[in-house]
Amino acid sequence: MSSSEMPGDDPRIATEVRAELAEIPWRLAREMIDHVLADADRRGLRVAVSLIDRWGRKLAFQRQPGTVMASSAVAIGKALAACTFDAPTHILVATI
């Protein structure tokens, strides 16, 4: 898998996970988090990343050194909002 290709980019994976309402395997969750962190590094950003399952349970979380104190709570809150409303947070913000 190339560094620019996110593990979740394959629509078959997303469809299978959604259809079975299964948890994302830990290895895939870790790869997704690592991809986001690598992308943030390339952009010179410091981020906190939270990945949850359909029921709001945390699967993976990582905060880079140098993020602001509230970034952990914001990352978790955004993940929960996206899960609750079944939409990416950038879409939710546009509808408010």
Structure characterization notes:
It is a single chain. The chain has 96 residues and is mostly helical. The protein has a single domain, classed as 2-Layer Sandwich (Beta-Lactamase), CATH 3.30.450.150. The chain contains four helices and two strands; from the N terminus they run ααββαα. The protein has helices at residues 11-20, 26-43, 71-85, 89-95; strands at 48-52, 58-63. Strands 1-2 form a two-stranded antiparallel sheet. The longest helix is centred in the middle third of the chain and has 18 residues, at 26-43. It is globular.
User: How much strand?
Assistant: 5-15%
Average pLDDT confidence is 80
Main sheet overview: 2 strands, antiparallel
SSE pattern: HHEEHH
The portion of residues assigned to helices is 40-55%
**What name goes with the CATH superfamily?**
Haem-degrading domain
What is the alpha-carbon Rg in Å?
Answer: 14 Å
Treating each run of at least 4 consecutive H or I residues as one helix, how many helices?
A: 4
Q: What is the CATH domain class?
A: Alpha Beta
- Shape descriptor reads globular
Number of extended strands:
2
Give the terminus-to-terminus CA distance.
Answer: 37 Å
> And the CATH topology?
Beta-Lactamase
Count of structural domains: 1
CATH A-level architecture: 2-Layer Sandwich
Strand order of the largest sheet: 1-2
Structural class estimated from helices and strands: mainly alpha
Spans of 5+ residues with little confidence (pLDDT < 50)?
A: 1-8, 11-21
